[in-house]
Fold these 3 entries.
Entry 1:
Amino acid sequence: MVSVDKYFDFKTDLILDVQAVYNANRYAKLVKRKERLQIWLDYYQLKFERHPDKRPTGRTGCFGFCGGEVDQIDYYRARISELDKRMASERQKVLNDPKAIMPVSFVTFDSRWGAAVCAQTQQSKNPTQWLTDWAPEPRDVYWVNLAIPFFSLSIRKFLISIAVFCFGLLLHDTYCICAITCQS
């Protein structure tokens, strides 16, 4: 497969930046988990600031009913620092693993004209090798779906089509039975 950098070698006057998309779904989950832990840490720190004579404590077990009683501020700080280490190692895995690079990249052009030229011209002899399109808004992209393989995506589309067809057939048959019953 031709690399993005090699492809854009002869169009360097139009290109500002080329950024490949990485499959960082596990890293994103760790970031979300850290954000939740940070919210709890902030909550317990505010609680301690309001009542400095009593440090917030709680149990670490299932739903806070079992397990040892710990200082919540120290507990959440330790969990966040542990998660920071896991995030750093996961980030290195994503950056160093060649399988993490997705078959998608974002290209930044220096002008609208350069972007229009590249988006509207055929990019190679094989028209399915390089497909170009205007970039969507970042909030319109469901980033988790970029990691779904094309074959799996095709199977999902096929199964959904069958389900929609069966549901439509069921509705049609139900309507016909109701119509026949009402007319007789």
Entry 2:
Amino acid sequence: MRVLAAVLLSVSSVLAYQVTYPGGTQGWTTTGPNYLKWDRVSTDPLNFTAVLTNQNTAVMPLNNQVLNALVDGTLGVIECNPPSGGWPVGDGFRVNLAQDAQHLDSLLAQSDEFSIAASSSTGSVMSMTSTQSASSSNSALTPSATSPSTTPTSSDTSTSPTSSSAALAGVDAKTGLLTALAALTAFITTAF
């Protein structure tokens, strides 16, 4: 029965946010733009806070730097704001998707470790370009290397929820599922 409880808890963690970019060999640069890409399921909270972390205080003395607060989880990708003091350089970085800016230790997901590299003004820049499949009308954003532009551009990186995507709309479903799993786990571990 304890195995059943462990399986149920594992299944609940699979059905959650997953950071797909950055991570591993897909890192960021000090000049950006630096994108965060994720997958989610309908039971995930609609909003989260993106947090840059690094356990190595020599690389990043102030851990848990909020990059974007109140991110609309249905977007799937955002351009991250640099932390105060600019982008640090080094290895061992992770992006955490935290519950909100007041609960940075309540994680919904965490990226794999990645590097942030110093880049020159003549280097290539990672950007997100829209691609469309011939068999599907859904477009997806994918990273691609491009040469930096000398023409300034602006983008709206607002992550404010709309009335149809308020943060509390999906909380009941996830809370109910997690409460039921916790009750079942407690029952199984105490009954057997």
Entry 3:
Amino acid sequence: MDYEVNPPPPPPPPLLPDSPTSNMTPLATIVEAFEELAEIVNDSKEDLRLKPFTDACALVSVLFDSLGFAFKFAQMEYCAKVRGLAEASRTYATLQNVIEVDVKNETVKCQGSLSRNLRRVRQGLHLITALFHQFVSTCDCSLREAASTAYSQTCAPYHAWAVRATVAAGMYALPSRDQLLLKLNETDQSAEKRMRRFMKASLPIIQYIDELYTSRNISLDW
């Protein structure tokens, strides 16, 4: 199948885009970026383009950074995969193009393939979505409880024992709820509102990515 190829663009931006000139918090900036992506996905009139997708995903790295040592491995893996996809956006226009090329070359699940990178980025987004869900479910839930549950539901099944053990040990170094809110420059009320908006926006994007695999009879158990 032919795929769309972008013309050579100027040099790519750094992984973390420049902050907007407004006084929006990091979380507010992330939410707006993902709501724009969700609108495209929900409209169903065009394929999701790789460049705006990677720009939005790069913003999420600040959330991993706010969680500290416990999610250092997840942050490193996530940022590396986003960077790989961002570089690929100079050649491939859409997420679908990425999958099509790897299907043609039989490299979908190969180490370092763009399809594998996309799968890992999707898992990172799922982790943050699950964490937010736990965080806003009750004000009595500690960040350690929320993060532990979110990790076990999303990334743990795909990580080796050594990684799971490292993450489990790091959970004790997580900031408190109040410390996380301070890092993100949010209040309880503003954080809950924005976390719920992110969850709503990320769901169709995650489903869209999953369908890129399942529609080609590619399992999601990896």
